[in-house]
Amino acid sequence: MTHKRMAMGALMNQTELCNRLARTPEDRLLLRRVLDQAVAAERKCVPCRTHFLSPREAALSGQLIAALGQPSHRFDGGYPSAERQVCVFLPDWLEPEDCLPEEVGITALRATWYQGESLSHRDLLGALMGLGVRREMVGDLLVAEHSCDCLLLPEVVPFLLQNLTQAGRSRLRVAQIGLDEIVVPAVARKIIRDTVSSLRLDAVAASGFGTSRAKMAEAISSGRVTLNYLECTRPDHPVAQGDSIACRGMGKCRLTAVGGRSRKGRVNITLERYI
After folding, report:
1. pLDDT per residue as tens digits for the range 68-101
2. Across the chain, how many H-helices and E-strands are there?
3. Does 5 have pLDDT greater than 60?
4. Which residues of 83-104 are buried (b: 16+ CB within 10 A; e: fewer)?
5. What Cα–Cα distance (Å) separates residue 19 from each residue in 13, 25, 229?
6. Which of 97, 100, 172 is nearest to 141 (CA)?
7. Which helix (DSSP H) or strand (DSSP E) does residue 230 occupy?
8. Is the backbone of residue 134 left (phi > 0), alpha (psi -120 to 50) or beta?
9. What is the rounded CA–CA span in Å between residue 50 and residue 65?
């Protein structure tokens, strides 16, 4: 109960908290909506979830949750490596690992099209947006050769089963599937093993993107780099194992392992760069 009292105590000045964490008016609105779900779960003693969050929105929400004293919650996108996720706030009686799919509130539809036709992520997302479905209702779209598994909030599923009939010039057949039936396409990654003088952002990012530390420091200072999906303008910001780094025009990489020091005192690291 102490844990929950700490969280509710933080809610007493919720406007100030959201203003402090927000970087834009849109951030402020997002954080207030996330906060509303945290309060609802506490007061109603039932699971309450957000809409789908982008990785940046999820990272920002994580900062809010930490400031609230870590009320019980779970991020979930329908499968383990999902990029877009909802945040479910949980009551005292429900542990995160015991939260059932129906309590998370994510549904999957599979759209299929004829062989010989080709559709992209952009085509499928455009079809959904063209039907008036808001982006926040849509999670990941997992596009395969002749199908796409769409992660969705259940509110839009009946409508899409009736109306999602076309993407581009291709006719679609749509059916609901279980979350255990979704097919996650393989993501091409390049493994990079290197040594750095320290775990500074500019040093690790330069290694991951194959450029000089000076050029990387300039990119960071100019606001082109995000660390764990949030903009970071400090070249000397520390990076930890598991952190994700993205740079406009260069792509994304993740620090997967930090080893010991080499004979010259440099830190051994392993990164995955997404191709």
Report:
1. 889 999 999 999 999 999 999 998 888 888 777 7
2. 9, 15
3. no
4. ebbbbbbbbeebeeeebeeebb
5. 10, 9, 19
6. 172
7. strand 230-231
8. beta
9. 13
| Cα gap 135→29, rounded to integer Å | 16
For the chain, what is the radius of gyration of the CA atoms?
21
Of 2, 1, 3, 63, residue with least CA distance to 27: 63
Whose tokens are 């959904």? That residue is 128
Residues 255 and 204: their CA atoms lie apart, in Å, by: 8
Going from the N-terminus, what domains does the chain have, and what CATH number goes with each?
2-97 (3.30.1370.160), 107-181 (3.30.70.330), 189-274 (3.10.290.10)
Predicted TM-score (pTM) of this structure:
0.84
Residue 99 and residue 86 in contact, taking contact as beta carbons nearer than 8 Å = no
Q: Could you tell me which of 51, 235, 36 has the C-alpha nearest to residue 151?
A: 51
